[in-house]
Design a protein that fits this description.
The chain is α/β, with parallel strands linked by helices. It contains 10 helices and 12 strands. The strands form 3 sheets. It has a 5-stranded mixed sheet. Helix 7 links the parallel strand 8 and strand 9. Bound molecules: 2-phosphoglycolic acid. The site of 2-phosphoglycolic acid has 13 residues, from helix 7.
Length: 305
């Protein structure tokens, strides 16, 4: 069979997401380009790989078989890349890091400090949400992931820094400046929330459910940046990581509400599949982050309660 690795990668991404749109976003290709790769692959294979039922696509039997083998091939290729990177050592190595979108507020500073120490190293940074990260981890598609809530099962997670979630409001909000606001007071308030798949959203939902308080999610947005703008414009309250708020707090564009039970105390984790074979650069970045993130980052902190 004469298919290419490119076609297999496109197929693997479409099969994992069961969506051409999400696969093309991940691969940084247009949707027609991805469809073309799949069509060519189907011609080589001689069988259809997907079938469309209503609006959704599904794998055919042949597609399922091919998905099984393409995951194994992708894992082997990434291991080969690892071995070659190891041979290049720290002088010319390459590092691929995938981070939850919230971590993007500090990871570039971490990378800059690391690259200053190891000047030949180049880095690819993939920014996505928690759910997509778990999928990437499942196929061992990066050196390391940084996230706020690793899956409880297989991957190995090293906590390296606190990640408090706080409630934000515009400075002229009636609750701004009040001390010890009872959680129940938020029951009627409108909230601007992150999209499904976000770790911030999952933790927030869990917190309110555990405390038996139903908030009204009136708006949904795909990034912390959009939520900050929306809260500032008076669209509702928001729950975000303190690490996204450095500038807005300094400029008094947003304030943190002093609500009982908040901040939700969480951590940032470096995550990798169990038994991961690290390149030299991957291992160096892991150790660097565990040992030095605290000094390098100078992020805002909250007083301990
Ligand atoms: P996210 O952040 O909301 O950008 O997915 C990760 C997390 O805090 O768990």
């Amino acid at each position: 069979m004469n298919f290419t690795f490119r076609q297999l990668k496109a197929f693997e991404a479409v099969a994992r997401h069961l969506s051409y749109t999400r696969a093309s976003e991940e691969l940084h290709l247009t949707q027609p380009a991805v469809s073309m790769q799949i069509r060519q692959l189907e011609e080589h294979v001689g069988l259809p790989l997907f079938e469309q039922i209503g609006k959704r696509i599904h794998l055919t039997d042949a597609g399922r078989e091919l998905y099984h083998y393409s995951c194994a091939i992708a894992a082997q290729v990434s291991e080969l890349e690892m071995v070659l990177e190891e041979m290049k050592g720290l002088q010319r190595g390459h590092l691929t890091i995938a981070v939850a979108s919230t971590a993007n507020y500090f990871v570039p500073r971490l990378i800059a400090a690391f690259c200053q120490r190891h000047q030949g190293v180049s880095v690819t940074l993939e920014v996505t949400n928690r759910e997509a990260l778990l999928n990437l981890l499942a196929i061992n598609a990066m050196d390391l992931a940084i996230m706020g809530q690793p899956a409880s099962s297989d991957p190995v997670a090293h906590p390296f820094m606190e990640n408090p979630l706080v409630i934000i409001a515009p400075p002229d909000h009636p609750l701004a400046g009040e001390k010890g606001i009872p959680l129940q007071r938020l029951a009627g308030e409108g909230f601007v929330v992150r999209e499904k798949g976000s770790g911030t959203r999952a933790s927030t939902e869990r917190f309110f459910a555990e405390h038996g308080v139903a908030i009204r999610a009136t708006q949904q947005m795909h990034s912390s940046e959009a939520i900050k703008q929306a809260v500032e414009a008076g669209l509702g309250l928001g729950v975000l990581s303190l690490h996204t708020l450095e500038m807005e707090l300094a400029l008094n564009r947003l304030v943190i509400l002093d609500v009982e039970g908040f901040p939700i105390r969480r951590h940032w984790y470096l995550v990798h599949p169990r038994g991961k074979r690290f390149s030299k650069v991957g291992e160096a970045f892991l150790n660097f982050t565990l040992e030095e993130a605290g000094h390098v980052l100078h992020l805002p902190t909250l007083p301990r309660s």
